[in-house]
Write a structure and sequence with these properties.
By secondary structure, the chain is an alpha+beta fold. It has one domain. It is 15% helix and 28% strand. The protein contains 4 helices and 12 strands. It has a 5-stranded mixed beta barrel with strand order 2-3-9-8-5. Strands 6-10-12 form a 3-stranded antiparallel sheet. Strands 1-4 form a two-stranded antiparallel sheet. The protein is globular, with a radius of gyration of 16 Å. 45% of the residues are buried. The N terminus and C terminus are likely disordered. Keywords: Signal.
Length: 239
Amino acid sequence: MRNAFGALLAFLVASILVAYAQVPAAFWGKCLGPYVLCAVANCSIRADTGNKKYPLQAECGCLTPESNGLPYGASLVTPNIIKREKAYKATLQECFGNDPLANGTCTAVNSMPACKAINNYNLYPGGDWPLISTYRPWSNEGAQECVGKADNSSIMAECMTAACYKKTAWDGSPYTCFCPVVTVPAGEKYGLGFPKDKYGAQGIPCDQPRGYIPSGEIYSVITVGRRRVYSRRALWQYV
């Protein structure tokens, strides 16, 4: 697995996804176990969210990039986008000494608490979510760079460590994940993933049809120093 993770990290060093990051990719959690990839997901905004009771949430169609077609292999977890508060705090304490700007010490495979929780199927309570969305490079993955609009109308689905299970998604993808919808601050750069075989060199538009959004990441949030906070209410579907 050392070679597999070496390839992942080499890709990330040159990747647009970490071009703006302050946390070296070497300090991301190296997980070996069950996972799915939502980096190129197309998502449908749930009609029963976006109200006073429940914040916006997206249902995303995800996949496995593994050649054997199984949702198991080497993947990476961004330390500050661990959506379950318990796992985030354990990771912050054990791997960063409760200093979000410190260099990480959990560099061995499956040493990060979040990886352990994923492999034990208890990142989220109840055992109802056997799969978690993490990240690994995929040859068919493209990235579209966008900038948050001045009126704060730019949104995306943020799927890192989202809860998933094997159910055919709304778009026909083999796995369904539930990802919080986040607003991109005005002027912030963010990346949207897309499958290159579907959209080609032109990529995807930053603005999607009403009710649909791609999965993405805000570049400045891919740091331990800028924790993406999710309330229990925002994760109502599975926390």
